[in-house]
């Protein structure tokens, strides 16, 4: 009898140990599952915020989107968001956009990296805009305004300067001078037909094409990227969203 009772006690100990082991495994699995659920919820929430910000950019005109899209981190839908918006033509090109008669400026010139813009709010006289492009950088200038300078990657990508004058309605004559050294540069000029004589584009080592009467081409194509952060000082985004948008000028 004593031997039988001893075996029963050992069995109880073994059973208790097995129950504890199984319970530990289950609790650990539950804990991991809970952590994964919370991570998934965070990613899903951040992705929704990124999509919402992209939709907000889609509803803007091109110039407003460029101004909004220089990587400033700000609070949006209870998360911190950065937006980058750059001129886009094709992946194998760098694009400069010159918008004439836009929403906030008579002349708005933005480089490929959108590090800034040269803005002439209201035209007085007959303005001149100069764009110099080299293998390693660029300069955009106009008398009376601070020049905008920046760098270009040291690769062989071609450059497109897209001048959109479809909405230009001022009576002043605009002269745009483009010079290129060390890169293949093309310039495309769109006008409404009636204002073609008021938009003069000259080039040095630049191929220039004019598209007159394109009144429907009142838009700019941009590449947009939205990053979402949970905290203002986070280094890694919790979600990233990319898109190609066509925005009204």
Pick out its properties.
249 residues, alpha/beta, six-stranded mixed beta sheet, five-stranded mixed beta sheet, 2 helices
Q: Could you describe the 3D structure shown?
A:
The chain is of the alpha/beta class and 249 residues long. It has one domain (1-249). 26% of the residues lie in helices and 41% in strands. It has two helices and 15 strands. The strands form three sheets. The chain has a six-stranded mixed sheet, with no helix packed on it. It has a five-stranded mixed sheet with strand order 8-7-6-10-12, with no helix packed on it. 31% of the residues are buried.
Multimer state: single chain
Rg of Cα set: 29 Å
- Helix tally equals 2
Euclidean distance between termini CA atoms:
96 Å
Strand order in the sheet with the most strands: 5-4-3-9-11-13
In round numbers, the mean pLDDT is 88
Sheet-strand content, in percent, reads 35-45%
Order of helices and strands: HHEEEEEEEEEEEEEEE
Envelope shape: elongated
Number of strands: 15
Class per helix and strand makeup: alpha/beta
């Amino acid at each position: 009898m004593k031997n039988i009772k001893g075996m029963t006690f050992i069995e109880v100990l073994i059973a208790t140990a097995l129950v504890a082991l199984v319970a530990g495994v289950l609790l650990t699995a539950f804990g991991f599952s809970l952590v994964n659920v919370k991570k998934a919820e965070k990613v899903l929430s951040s992705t929704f915020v990124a999509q919402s910000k992209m939709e907000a950019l889609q509803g803007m005109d091109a110039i407003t989107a460029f101004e909004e899209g220089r990587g400033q981190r700000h609070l949006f839908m209870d998360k911190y968001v950065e937006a980058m918006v750059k001129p886009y033509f094709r992946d194998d090109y760098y694009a400069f956009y010159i918008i004439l008669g836009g929403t906030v400026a008579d002349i708005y010139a933005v480089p490929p990296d959108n590090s800034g813009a040269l803005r002439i709010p209201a035209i007085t006289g007959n303005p001149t805009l100069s764009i110099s492009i080299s293998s390693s950088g660029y300069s955009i200038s106009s008398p009376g305004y601070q020049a905008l300078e920046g760098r270009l990657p040291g690769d062989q990508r071609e450059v497109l300067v897209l001048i959109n004058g479809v909405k230009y309605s001022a009576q002043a004559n605009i002269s745009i001078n483009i010079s290129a050294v060390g890169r293949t540069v093309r310039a495309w000029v769109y006008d409404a037909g009636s204002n073609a004589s008021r938009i003069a584009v000259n080039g040095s080592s630049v191929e220039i094409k004019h598209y007159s009467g394109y009144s429907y081409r009142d838009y700019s194509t941009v590449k947009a990227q939205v990053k979402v952060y949970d905290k203002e000082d986070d280094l890694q985004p919790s979600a990233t969203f990319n898109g190609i948008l066509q925005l009204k000028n």
